[in-house]
Amino acid sequence: MPAMRVFALSYLALPILFALTASAPHAAPADEPNPVEKQHQGNSSGTLSSKQQLDNLFMALRRQRDPDQASLIADQINAQFADSGSATINLLMQWADKAIQDKRNAAAMDYLDQVISLKPDYVEGWNRRATLNFAIGDYRKSMEDINQVLRIEPRHFGALAGMAAMLTERGNDALALKAWQRFLEVYPANRSAQEEADKLSEKIAGSRT
Predict the structure, then answer these.
(1) Dihedral (C-alpha) 200, 71, 21, 51: value to the nearest 10 degrees?
(2) Between helices 191-207 and 157-169, what is the axis angle to 10°?
(3) HEC profile for the chain?
(4) Do 105 and 136 touch, CB atoms closer than 8 A?
(5) How many whole angstroms separate alpha carbon 179 and alpha carbon 162?
(6) pLDDT < 70: residue spans in the chain
(7) How much is the pLDDT for 20?
(8) How far apart (Å, rounded) are the C-alpha atoms in residues 157 and 170?
(9) Contact 55, 35 (CB under 8 A)
(10) CA-CA distance, 145 to 149, in Å (whole number)?
């Protein structure tokens, strides 16, 4: 199974129209100050909040055209998602990961339920539970969880990739293409996403002739 497909099928999203019609982020005009400098100007302490750091990373990801450099930025974004800012939550996530590795899905689900109960705005808690629900075949719950991911963070490129893959499998090429287009608004240098979008565009165009 191709790498992008494995990555994408770890995620699901519902409702589709919510994710596809949510306001897409826009890059700052070219004549605006560097995003990091701009935040420093408005913050006398000279430090950035986690949200400011994440916003700056997403801006850099949108502007970066080199795939390798963009991948490094994407890794930083995923690291930001993973860090809950709470030692307790981070420990529960580690326990959940270990339980998943050991195929103790019930225990993993219990840990993730606790994570979501304790910190419902922590995007990675919902994301990890969506992945687990998908793995055990509970697609309805997986979709519900990934919808929460996109509600909290509409720029979550993993969720958008998963949605696109699922739509493609169901034969809904037009909506799948829209999902990939949304993905590419967030992460334009991703070659696999570009290839998937191109293939769908060609397929849709061919079906109209």
Answers:
(1) 180
(2) 30
(3) CCHHHHHHCCCCCCCHHHHHHCCCCCCCCCCCCCHHHHHHHCCCCCCCCHHHHHHHHHHHHHHCCCHHHHHHHHHHHHHHHHCCCCHHHHHHHHHHHHHHHCCCHHHHHHHHHHHHHHCCCCHHHHHHHHHHHHHCCCHHHHHHHHHHHHHHCCCCHHHHHHHHHHHHHCCCHHHHHHHHHHHHHHCCCCHHHHHHHHHHHHHHHHHCC
(4) yes
(5) 9
(6) 1-46, 209
(7) 52
(8) 20
(9) yes
(10) 7
How crowded is residue 144: how many other Cβ atoms within 10 Å of its Cβ?
A: 16
Query: 15-57: per-residue pLDDT in tens?
Result: 444 445 444 444 333 334 444 444 444 444 458 888 899 999 9
CATH architecture of 85-153: Alpha Horseshoe (1.25)
Cβ-count burial 30-58 (b if 16+ within 10 Å, e if not):
eeeeebeeebbeeeeeeebeeebbbbbbb
Phi-psi region of 165 (alpha: psi -120 to 50; beta: other; left: phi over 0): alpha
The domain segmentation of the chain, as residue ranges, is: 85-153
Q: What's the pLDDT at 133? A: 85
Instruction: Give the end-to-end CA distance of the chain in Å, rounded to a whole number.
Output: 30
pLDDT of residue 96: 97
Task: Give the per-residue pLDDT at 190.
Answer: 97
pLDDT of residue 182: 92
Q: Find, among 203, 186, 132, the residue nearest to 19 by Cα.
A: 186
